[in-house]
């Protein structure tokens, strides 16, 4: 772990790595591994850009306003996310516990806290549920799978995913409060 990572991460790493390894064992089942990889891919930015672009079609009365709101919220969230990730420097479980936690998908960078995939998934779920509640039954299972995939693929600790979800929810609530 880098020297400037908060000491709390070392403590959390020791608490969580067994769970990461245990969840990673399910990857022996090819269908589950494929499901996790697909879910992780859905959590990448193109899925959310597609959702934002579809807002004017999905909500003809206010879709353009929502498009602007979601876009600005996402840009602010990305900035804060990058700041947190590069300042807190928690290394991914497959790096810290080489040989004990295996990586089953490519990582974009070295650090894991917070989970950006989960942050965006929860943020867009919360925003969309507020404006287009009929999409929630479709989005909730996808968001859960995205969160599970990040730990299951060896890319994040559980606390990374929980923190990402909380941050995403806070951004969405702030956006909803600001936009009225």
UniProtKB/TrEMBL annotation:
The keyword ATP-binding does not apply. Gene3D superfamilies: Phosphatidic acid phosphatase type 2/haloperoxidase. GO terms for cellular component: plasma membrane. Keywords: Cell membrane, Hydrolase, Membrane, Transmembrane, Transmembrane helix. This is undecaprenyl-diphosphate phosphatase. It comes from Halomonas icarae. It is found in: Cell membrane. The keyword Ion transport does not apply. It is a multi-pass membrane protein. GO terms for molecular function: undecaprenyl-diphosphatase activity. Its EC number is 3.6.1.27. The chain crosses the membrane at residues 35-58, 64-84, 132-155, 161-179. InterPro entries: PAP2/HPO (IPR000326), PAP2/HPO_sf (IPR036938). It is an enzyme of class 3 (hydrolase). Residues 66-176 form the Phosphatidic acid phosphatase type 2/haloperoxidase domain. Its main location: membrane. Pfam families: PAP2. It catalyses: di-trans,octa-cis-undecaprenyl diphosphate + H2O = di-trans,octa-cis-undecaprenyl phosphate + phosphate + H(+).
């Amino acid at each position: 772990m880098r020297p400037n990572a908060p000491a709390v991460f070392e403590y959390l790493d020791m608490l969580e790595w067994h769970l990461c390894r245990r969840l990673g064992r399910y990857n022996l089942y090819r269908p589950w591994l494929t499901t996790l990889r697909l879910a992780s891919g859905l959590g990448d930015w193109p899925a959310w850009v597609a959702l934002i672009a579809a807002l004017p079609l999905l909500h003809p009365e206010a879709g353009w306003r929502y498009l602007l709101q979601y876009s600005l919220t996402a840009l602010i969230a990305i900035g804060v996310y990058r700041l947190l990730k590069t300042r807190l420097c928690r290394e991914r479980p497959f790096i810290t516990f080489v040989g004990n936690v295996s990586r089953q998908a490519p990582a974009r960078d070295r650090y894991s806290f917070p989970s950006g995939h989960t942050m965006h998934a929860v943020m867009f779920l919360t925003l969309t549920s507020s404006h287009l509640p009929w999409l929630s039954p479709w989005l909730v299972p996808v968001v859960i799978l995205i969160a599970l995939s990040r730990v299951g693929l060896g890319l994040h600790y559980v606390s990374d995913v929980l923190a990402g979800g909380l941050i995403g929810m806070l951004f969405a609530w702030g956006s909803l409060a600001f936009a009225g």
